[in-house]
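So, can you check this record?

>
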Amino acid sequence: MPTFSAPDGTRLAYRVSGEGPPVVCVPGGPADSAYLGDLGGLSEHRQLIALDLRGTGRSAVPDDTSSYRCDRLVDDIEALRVHLGLARLDLLGHSAGANPAVQYAARLPERVARLALIAPGTRAVGIEITGGTRRALARARREEPWFPAAFPALEAITDGTGSDWEAIAPFLYGRWDDAARAHHAASAPDNPEAVALFAADGAFDPAATRTALGGCPAPVLVLAGEFDLNSPPCAAEELAGLFPDAALVVQRRAGHYPWLDDPARFVEVTAAFLGR
């Protein structure tokens, strides 16, 4: 597995799959990038460079754990660009990984060729998602066999009276089948400190980021899953509106991992965007 050195000397690893022009992929979590797989077959169209964020996967734990902070990860993305010898990046961020990807575009817009934000987290730009929004999306799945157990757990979490996150896992997938269960079990973050410090004080400056994105000339794809409670379509639409040249796609009957729910549709949309 190839590695490179971050600006602070931390050794970072990345996974390579496929051939063609590279796309740097920033995972959510923070978690091992292995959960991205080949993004439903996107590697048949482009070479995927999936970064293991510091302290996850095969990347080293940093000496300075404050460097787990989201905005500090922008430097790691830039170091990877330099390591790969790329003048500009095609950059893809999933879930929480969309936050450092967006911050990278805000800070270094001249280095971004295209930006794909998949089921994006929105903390970097201050878009909040209410409990009411999550409940409304959840109720659309009331006919699912797992709904009677999952919905009360969701209500307790949104009310601040519960924390059974495992019970609400089915809401993150378009189909809660054996493949989804296996993916969920394998994709859980394994570095609690990296997760806890990702959003530490100073990690986000939403007003400044929103202003900077207004001057980002790169084309942007914001792809949301119709059923995604974590990154609802309404939040994705608001995020897309912050860029001068952004397209919003809502993938039907998909959750937080749209490349699993309908790989053909996901690859069709994403490959076409990256081929612009």
